Amino acid sequence: MNFDNAQSVLNRALCRIAEIQSDGPLRIAFANFGVALGDNPPPPIRGEMDADDLDELAEHMQRVMEAVEKYAEAVIADAKFRTSGLDFDVNVMGRLADMQGDLVGAFRNAADAMREFKREYEADDL
Fold first, then answer.
1. Tens of pLDDT along the chain (126 residues)?
2. How many domains are contained in the chain?
3. CA-to-CA distance for 82 and 71, rounded, in angstroms?
4. Dihedral (Cα; 70, 110, 45, 43), 10-degree rounding
């Protein structure tokens, strides 16, 4: 079974699970989270990475973290609803957004550094 077929089977299974077991928005959010991850496989990278590979990984991680954020928001909302307004640390979502920015930024900065190094290396050869 190739990756695309496996991904399609996973997506269908997750949607079916959500239909069968759905007892609220949290299960649907979880199914959507699984679909979002299944729809976003890491980019294929063969051999040594270059700056474009690092940019692709940054985009991949951006989408993964966006899916995590949506699911976390659903879990928090469900917990608040089911506990009569649970006093939840609202800054947790800000910290998650900071982590997302740091993670994606690290890949983008590495890509920029690699490009700069290559430009300097090529300039030295002239």
1. 556 677 777 777 766 665 545 567 888 899 999 999 999 999 999 899 999 999 999 999 999 999 999 999 998 888 888 888 677 776 788 899 999 999 999 999 999 999 999 898 888 766
2. 2
3. 16
4. 20
Q: Are residues 62 and 119 in the same domain?
A: yes
- How far apart (Å, rounded) are the C-alpha atoms in residues 59 and 7? 19
- Which residues, at least 6 apart from 21, have a Cβ–Cβ distance to it below 8 Å? 27
The answer to whether residues 36 and 53 belong to one domain is no
Q: How many whole angstroms separate alpha carbon 8 and alpha carbon 14?
A: 10
Give the predicted TM-score (pTM) of the model.
0.73
Does residue 34 share a domain with residue 59? no
Phi, psi (rounded to 5 degrees) for 78 = -65, -45
Containing domain of residue 94, as a range? 48-126
Instruction: Indicate if 98 and 123 belong to the same structural domain.
Output: yes
Among the residues of 22-126, which ranges form H helices? 25-38, 51-82, 91-125
